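ok trying again, last paste got cut off:
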Amino acid sequence: MNNEWIIIEVLAVLVEKGAVLYFLNSRYQSKYNSSVPNWGAWSLLVICGLIVVHPYVAIHAVITHLIMLIYLVLFKNGLILHKIFGILIVFVLITSTSIIGAGFASLITSSSIEHTLLYQDTSRLFALIFIKALQVAVFYTLAKRHEKERNLRKRPAIFLFVAVAANFVYLAMLRIYVESPDLQPQQNYMLIWLAVGALLMMIGIFIVYELFIREEARNVELATKLQRINLETGFFKEMDKLYYEIRIWRHDYENNIKVLRALVAKAEIDSALKFMNNMNSSIMDSKIMIQTGNFALDVIINAKLVLAKSHGIEIDVEAIYPEGCCVSDNDLCVIAGNMIDNAIEACLRISDIKAEKFINIVIGSIKKNLYISICNSYGNDIIQKDGRFFTSKKEPNHGIGIKHVDAVINKYQGYVKRSQDAGVFTTIITLPLEASDKLRGGIGC
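nice, full thing came through this time. structure:
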């Protein structure tokens, strides 16, 4: 069993340290845009785990947790007390999963936890594999809880849960079968490697799931960029059209001035005023030119509101983008674009011809927060459950925009309030103007 022990002990150390660092990296943003500190800390933890012997488990625990604390202090953002608390969480999780895993393995074979943890036999090998599988599942699950901005669909998560549960059942069945008195030594070795394969399979499941959600995140980012490009393209088309009309107006300027002078000379003041109003109406009454101080926000608002006004929706905008705001342009596109889209669609679904269709937008700063408020009329039923609002549209992929907005709000640790009253739906969002320590490394502020 010597070779088996060496291989499985090394694998256990690699798995445990990797799961712990993945969990810590999910809780604390890096100070530097480099993976070298992460690999260095993982290597030190692995080396420390490989040279330890059982009588010195306590010393090993102190050294490894001290290495993790130094790693957090030197290379991660956040308060020192929060980092110490994070290390304590890791200690509690490692200890509790070890006890739970050993207890479960002992319960299956009616042996003691002490025997399962200390004696170098097949029973302990299976317990060790079960413990590491449990640690991987626990640390990965907790790490995902700190990534709310991904906002994943339920089906992949359910598949992950079923796959992991099936893996644990498989390990438990192997643990029961290994105690069979009729089992030959060669079969015993085979069962051990099957258990190792189950552990590697579980790690593979999490890796595939991680690749899937990262691909999802990239798709969302690409969709957001595409949305912004389309909005900018539409805005530039509107600008070209506007400039073309201005050039035509300037071309006719001299002739218009001659007419005005003639009307004034004849003292036909009313006719002169009416002529001046007609000169401006072709431009001033048909265009919306909002300048907030942020180009991306200007593109979004102007392109969307030109569309809204073409459908007879009344527009009222008060928007001044605060200086020094740390919200990225892409995230602004997600929030403003989706919110105004939803407002326009709500107005268009009003079936009553006499009902007023309007959108009121307010953007500014309140107490060191970016404040965004959009009120709009609506005519369809709004689904509300547990204090949250859901789209009533039945088409596939609808409702994703709301999830994207909520993901951005969670990313900046902001606040959102949605309410409805007397045919008016209101959404209020506040985002910190300055990034917190947790976000500073992630959004480039």
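cool. Strands lie at 314-319, 358-365, 369-377, 383-385, 388-390, 415-421, 424-432. The chain has two domains: 2-224, 288-443.
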